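Morning. Coffee machine broken again, so started the prediction first thing and wrote up yesterday's gels while waiting. Chain of 417 residues, entered below exactly as on the submission form.
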Amino acid sequence: MKIDNLKKKPFSFFGNWRVILFLGIIFSLGVEFTMIFVIKANPYHWDSYEYLSLAQNISQNKTFALHDNTLDNGKPFNRETHTRMRQPLYPLLLTFFYWQTGKNILLVQAVQCVMGIACFILWFFTARRLLGPKKGTIAGILIALYIPLWMLSVYIISDTMFMTGQSIAIFLLLYALTSRRVLAFSALAGFFFGISVLIRPTALLLPFVSLVPLVLWLGRRKALKPSVVMLTFFALTIAPWAIRNKIQTGTFSPLSTEAGFNLWAGTVKGCTDARLTSKEFHIAEANDYYISQNASDRLMKVAIKNITANPAMYVLRGIARTRTWFFSPVPLPNPQSIPFNIIQCGIMIFAGIGLWRTGFKTGSFLLLAAIPIQISVFAMNSNSRYFLPTIPFILMLSTEGIAYCVMRYRGAKFRNP
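Came back before lunch.
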């Protein structure tokens, strides 16, 4: 047969996934570079100074503690020689890429931009493996266009690093569910679930929530070994930090001492600034730092007292915090503006339709990241940026919802021309 007689395959935009992946990477990099070099956003956040202080002490004194530095509006704190105020991995990253490089903030931002791109690649292939080539590619486009995901890389906070660890863990879990090397991928997933906890404590529930898709996808008997392997590797990953905390601080726990403040903040009305200037907060904090061990213990007692005094109000506040899902996440400029919130509401509505259409198996997997965050937000103080690591999976559900609505519209149009 002559080559001239062969029909050329028509170009398919959605079918050419490599082009979409490349364009998504370029777009996300463009947003990140715009934030850094054009808008020149302030990279420092409330949490940034604590992370930098811990990293500085690791670099200079080889201990995990707050440096004798000015924190909390001029209030110095250096009482805890060893602390567990924050999880260890992000301060370690800052130790190597900030303090060891002469306070090079651009290098930290560059590393976080690379992490953001890695996340996008993982989300893209997760979507294609779960939803199929066409719908998965469309989900990849929606994820790339969700600008707040790429704005996070600019800030000296643990969010981008946490998204990376969580995304790797979920991607590996998907391979455990869909490949023959179930135990190997389950072990790797457990390890990265542990890594995620060492970046941010809200990931603690992730491996336990993961047991649901394991059972639904593999069946109860076949899911037993992978579940044990995953939880074992998860426990082995976080155990060294828990042992260190027991030796240095007297508490056997892999978690930071933020729980007291966050639970207390979830029991009182008002914004963060109003809470921090309240009389109740100052009495509980006393002369300690607000997330130090002693202050956390006192705030925890006050929080429990507030909850038992008015449990109905605590539940109502928890339900009210759930509406944060329908607000566009920070750090968008003016995140409460109507256009951003309309888009976010549309995403959530289509995600609900998509969850209904996908069924228990796929739905349970795509809700992995959302469930622990929702539990945390219901129980404690919340911020709209906490939801960002879940948004790519919500967008995958939204893609299913949009596809279903388009299919129904086309069917109705065909039946009633």
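The beta strands are 70-71, 75-76. Going to sketch it on the whiteboard this afternoon.
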